[in-house]
Amino acid sequence: MKTQFEQMMDGLNDVEAFLAGEQEGFKAYVPQEVDVKAIRNRLGMTQAKFSDTFGFSLDAIKHWEGGRRTPEAPARTLLTVIDKNPAAVLTALNPAGVGSSKRTAVHSSRHRKRQASRGVTGRNASSAGRRRIAK
After folding, report:
1. How many helices (H) and strands (E) does the chain have?
2. Could you list the residue range(s) of the whole structural domain that residue 83 is in?
């Protein structure tokens, strides 16, 4: 098994060969494991909301988080992008802006977390989040 350094060097060699025109395309790195629950929690979403927002089945989310199944490579790829840039995924899945409440849901949950860290809690955080969205 290669060390992390060797894997990085292989990747850099691939980039160098691609830039020199010696190699076409590149191989994307898809992680073997993705912590779905951690991603969902960072976004402040329930399993149902995460499922609805990003197009996964609720059963899949439950099985992934429960360790009974692991996401296939395409799902791991999408989950990785959601983890790094959820707004990009939301824009791609909803390019016309129709029903933009999904996009706002990610923002409002982060907004409530910021408010909670400032001492605004519970009912006040939810109503303040709604006021912000309504503007």
Report:
1. 8, 0
2. 32-93
CB 128 within 8 A of CB 115: yes
Domain with residue 68: its CATH number is 1.10.260.40
Residues 26 and 59 in one domain: no
Mean pLDDT taken over the chain: 77
CB distance 103 to 87 below 8 Å: yes
The number of distinct structural domains making up the chain is: 3
The tokens of 46 are what? 């329930």
CB atoms within 10 A of CB 14: 15
- How many CB atoms within 10 Å of residue 71? 20
Query: What whole-number distance in Å separates Cα of residue 70 and Cα of residue 80?
Result: 14
Q: Same structural domain for residues 36 and 77? A: yes
Taking only the tens place, the pLDDT of each residue in 2-59 is: 788 888 888 888 888 888 888 777 677 889 999 999 999 999 999 999 999 999 999 9
Residues 6+ apart with CB under 8 A from 102: 52, 53, 90, 94
Note whether 23 and 48 are same-domain residues. no
